């Protein structure tokens, strides 16, 4: 049973980490066209999630966690639109450094990882249930 509880802990930590990743990707997509409120100001800056591996000393299992959510330092997209309220003195508007194709790929990857961790939880639950059934049959 100890292996099953370790599997559950690892899968649960993966679910938590992928949940944070999905929320960050959703925030990026929601702000993909956000501009600054002031002329020439910086718009929304894309965020990325950094994962870390941590060892749970009580169960001696390696679990995943979110070490931090950091800003992507790549350049903003510039578009010439002198009539836009956020345009700078030269008429350029800064748009977020969010690429929707990258975000959608990241979302799909996070979703698949989430589903894989969910499957581990289901399998562990089924194994525990089968073990209990076997113990009852004795």
Q: What are the defining features of this structure?
A:
138 residues; alpha+beta; two-stranded antiparallel ribbon; two-stranded antiparallel sheet; 2 helices
Shape: elongated
Strand coverage percent: 15-25%
Low-confidence runs of at least 5 consecutive residues: none
Radius of gyration: 22 Å
Descriptive overview:
The structure is a single chain. With 138 residues, this protein is α+β, with helices and mostly antiparallel strands. The chain has one domain (2-137). It is built from two helices and four strands; from the N terminus they run αββββα. The strands form two sheets. Strands 1-2 form a two-stranded antiparallel ribbon. It has a two-stranded antiparallel ribbon with strand order 3-4. A hairpin with a 4-residue loop joins strand 1 (47-56) and strand 2. Helix 1 (2-30) runs antiparallel to helix 2.
List the helices and strands and how they pair.
Elements (H helix, E strand, L loop, with lengths): L1 H29 L16 E10 L4 E11 L5 E4 L11 E4 L4 H38 L1
Antiparallel strand pairs: 1-2, 3-4
Helix pairs in contact: 1-2
């Amino acid at each position: 049973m100890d292996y099953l509880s370790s599997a559950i802990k690892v899968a649960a930590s993966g679910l938590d980490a992928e949940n944070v990743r999905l929320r960050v990707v959703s925030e990026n997509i929601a702000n993909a066209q956000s501009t600054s409120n002031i002329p020439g100001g910086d718009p929304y800056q894309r965020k990325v999630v950094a994962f870390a591996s941590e060892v749970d000393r009580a169960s001696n299992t390696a679990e995943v966690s979110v070490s931090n959510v950091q800003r992507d330092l790549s350049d903003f997209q510039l578009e010439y639109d002198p009539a836009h309220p956020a345009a700078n003195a030269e008429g350029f508007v800064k748009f977020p450094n969010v690429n929707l194709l990258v975000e959608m790929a990241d979302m799909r990857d996070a979703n698949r990882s989430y589903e894989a961790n969910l499957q581990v939880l289901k399998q562990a639950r089924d194994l525990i249930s089968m073990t209990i059934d076997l113990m009852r049959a004795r």
